[in-house]
Amino acid sequence: MLPKEKGSAPMTDTPLRTLLIEDQLDIQMILKITLEKSKNFTVVTAATGKDGISLATTQKPDLIILDFSLPDMEGPEILKVIKTDPATAYIPVIMLTARTGDLSTDDCKKNGATDVLFKPFDPRTIANQLLKLYQSTRS
């Protein structure tokens, strides 16, 4: 059972269509359940960069959560593909990583990421964090 979320996120009019590109199935499951439980997100998942790019192009989600390291491609490479394609360039992308030492959040932001969140994340607050980051791209 997931812990109760701290605070309540403001509700969106309709849930944000969210693409989660993450290869670790346990993290996929935790994020999908947590985000959908908040009622602010519907989540589609991809476990590879290739599948994620394909889903981003065909599904046109409102938000993309992108792992930094995937089996077939690195997150920054996927970010570059998404941000240079006019069909997906407008979609906010939030990077998710366990890396700390060699990662520059500024570099990710310069390349088009809205922000970078670090693993481990708190399942009680992640939905609020993501919603606030999404809303910051709309103001």
Q: Strands, helices and their partners?
A:
Elements: E1 16-21, H1 25-37, E2 41-46, H2 49-59, E3 63-67, H3 75-84, E4 93-97, H4 105-110, E5 115-118, H5 126-136
Parallel strand pairs: 1-2, 1-3, 3-4, 4-5
Helix pairs in contact: 2-3
Q: In summary, what is this structure?
A:
The chain is of the alpha/beta class and 139 residues long. Helices cover 37% and strands 19% of the residues. Helix 2 (49-59) packs parallel to helix 3 (75-84).
What's the average pLDDT? 89
Question: What does the main sheet amount to?
Answer: 5 strands, parallel
The CATH homologous superfamily of the domain at 16-67 and 77-103 and 124-136 is named Response regulator
Amino-to-carboxy terminus distance:
35 Å
Do you know the CATH architecture of the domain at 16-67 and 77-103 and 124-136?
3-Layer(aba) Sandwich
CATH topology of the domain at 16-67 and 77-103 and 124-136: Rossmann fold
- Radius of gyration based on Cα positions: 14 Å
**Oligomeric state of this protein:** single chain
Give helix and strand order, one letter per element, not per position.
Answer: EHEHEHEHEH
